Amino acid sequence: MTSEQVADRTAVEDAARDGSGKEASEGYQRGLGNRQIQMIAIGGAIGTGLFLGAGKAISKAGPSLILGYAIAGLVIFFIMRALGELLMYRPVSGSFSEYAREFLGPFFGYVTGWTYWLFWVVTGMTEVTAAATYVQFWDKSIPQWVSALGFTVVLYLANLISVKLFGELEFWFSMVKVTAIMGMILIGIGVITLGFSEAGETASFSQLWSHDGFFPKGIGGTLMTLHIVMFAFMAVELVGVTAGEAKDPEKTLPKAINTVPWRIGLFYVGSLIILMSVISWTNFKAGESPFVAAFQRIGLPAGAGIVNFVVLTAALSSCNSGMYSTGRMLRDLALNGQGPKFFAQLSKKGLPLRGTTVSAALMLVGVWINYQWPGDAFNYVVSFATISGLWAWVMILASHLRYRRLADKGLLPRSTFRAPGAPWTSIFGLAFIGAVFVLMGIDEDARVSLYFAPGWAAIMVISYFVLKRRNPEAFARRDLPVHADTTGPAA
Questions:
Q1: What is the 3-state secondary structure (H, E, C) of 153-192?
Q2: Counted domains in the chain
Q3: Strand partners, 246
Q4: Range of the domain at 144
Q5: Among 79, 84, 133, 344, which lies 20 to 30 A Cα-Cα from 23?
Q6: Confidence class of residue 47 from pLDDT cuts 50, 70 and 90?
C-alpha cells in the first residue's frame, strides 16, 4: 500500500472512532465463540433454497437431484477450502472483498464488496418472502406483504444487540433447524424400515428409481436445476465475514469449514434421499416445501405444522445473518475509501448499525414485491440473488489462485490451512460455475438473472470510474507485501 493510501485509510479510521474515542481500524468485538461460528456456518446454508426451492427442483429433475446436490456440494467444499486458506493467511472482516482488492485489483474489490452487499439485501427479501409464504400455511387470510413487513422490522431490531447475543440467537436458531432435519430423517427411516404411518406400505428406497428411473427428466433435466442447487448453498461463505469478530479465528474458522462435507451430505443429500423414498418424487411441486408436503402425505398433520414452524425459523435465521453481513460489508468499503465514510463508524457496542439500518430499509422493497406480485415474488428475488452470490464465489476462487501462486513462489506467507488439491480444485470450481452461467442462459426461467447482470455491471463500472476520479488514492492498486521465504517454493 502506498503512503498516500495509508494516510487516506487512517483518515477514514479516525472518522470511524466511536464516542469513547476508541480506535476502529477493525473495532469489532471478538464475541463469537467456536460453537456460535459453527452454527452460523450451518444456519447460513440451511434456508429457503433447501426448504422451499427444493420442491421446484425435485419436480424438474426427480431423484437425480440428489446427484446434483452431491456434485455441487463438492464444488462448495473446494470454494470453502480456498476461502479458508485465504482467511488463515490474513483473517479480516472484509473477507473475500478484501482479498479481491489485494490480489485482483481495486476494481474487483470494489465490485465484490458492493455486489455481495446487494446479494444479502436481495437474499433478505427472498427469506422474508419465504417466511411470509410459510405463515399462509396456518392462515391464508394474512397478506404476504403484511407478514414480510413485520418480519423485516423484528429482525432489524434483533440486530441492535451485541454481536455476542447475535451469535447466541443464531446458535439456537440453527440448533432448531439441525434438530428438526435430524428428526425428519429419523422419522423417515422409521417409515421406510418399520412401515408405520399411512405411507408405510409404499415407502421404500426403490422409490428413487421406480418412477421412470433415477433420471426421469433425463440428464438435461438435472443440469437445468444446477442454478437452483447452487442457490441453496449460498451463504456458506458467510463464515468468512465473521473473521473480524471470531474469538480465535485460527481455530474456529478451519473447524467450521471442515464441517462442510458432512453438513451437505446429511442435511441436503441425506434428507432428499429420505424424502423421495417415503413418497414418490411425483408428489412434489414448485412453491411447496417438500418437507411439509411429506409430513402431510404420511398422515402427520401436527408434524407438518411443526416442520412449517421450523422452516419459518430457517428463513428468518438466514435473513438475520444477511442483516449482520450487510453492515460489515458497507463498513469495509467505507474504510477502504470505496464507500461513503458515513458507514465507517461503529456504535459503542462495536456494531456497524448505520450500514445495517440502510440495508434493512432497502430490504423493505421485498415487502413491496410481495404486495405487487405475491405469487412470483420468490422467483424474482431468487434470480437476482443467484447472480450476485455466484460472483462472490468466482472472486474467492480467482483470489485464491493468485495468492497460491505467490505463496508457492515464496513471495507471500503460506497459509496454515492449505486447500487440498489446489490449484486444480479452484480451477475446477471456476469451470463449474461457468457452466452454471451457461445453463442459466439456456433455462428460460433462470434467464432473468442474466438480464439483471449487465445493468448492475454498468452501474459498477460507471460508479467506479467516477469515484476513482474523485479519490484516486483509494482506488490505486496496492503493492503486495513481499515475504522473504527462506524455505524456497513449495513442493
A1: HHHHHHCCCCHHHHHHHHHHHHHHHHHHHHHHHHHHHHHH
A2: 1
A3: 32
A4: 27-470
A5: 84
A6: low
